[in-house]
Amino acid sequence: MVEFNTQGGPSLSGFSHDASPQGLFVRTLTPAREGSRLSLRLVMAGQRTPCEAQAVVAWCNPPGMGSAFRSQTGMGLRLEGMDAQLQQRFVRFVPQTLGFPTAGPVRASGF
User: Fold this and answer.
1) How many CB atoms lie within 10 A of CB 2?
2) Which of 10, 53, 65, 82 has its CA 20 to 30 A from that of 47?
3) Residue 32: exposed, middle, or buried by beta-carbon count in 10 A (0-12, 13-18, 19+)?
4) 8-state DSSP, 52
5) For the whole model, what pTM was predicted?
6) Could you tell me the sign of the dihedral formed by the alpha carbons of 15, 11, 44, 89, in that order?
């Protein structure tokens, strides 16, 4: 689950199961505009406490008339300012093949 808002804007939400070491795709019917700066609160799989981060919207897919070839509605975020807890969780959940150094034995992703 991902809660997000722009400075002074309302809190909105979406969900994600697509992540990379410094990015996240959030599926939401209310994506922010490309270039927007967002504050995030994320609850990752198997966790109860949310983590916080800042992000910039790298691209968005606004809602529209669907077709078989249309991408999921949502937005791609470039993460910035992840708190230490979130960084540690990303190292555990995002597959090492996407850019994280292996700190120990390779584990299957839980994402």
Assistant:
1) 24
2) 10
3) buried
4) E
5) 0.74
6) positive
Q: Where are the beta strands (DSSP E) in 22-91?
A: 23-27, 37-42, 51-61, 74-80
What tens digit of pLDDT does each residue of 49-60 get? 888 889 999 999
User: Which two structure tokens, joined as six digits, stand for 60?
Assistant: 């968005």
Amino acid at 24: L
* 15 in Cβ contact with 26 (< 8 Å): yes
Q: How many residues are listed for the chain in this entry?
A: 111
Dist. CA 106–CA 10, nearest whole Å: 40
Position 45: which residue type?
A: A
The C-alpha angle 49, 51, 52, rounded to 5 degrees, equals 145
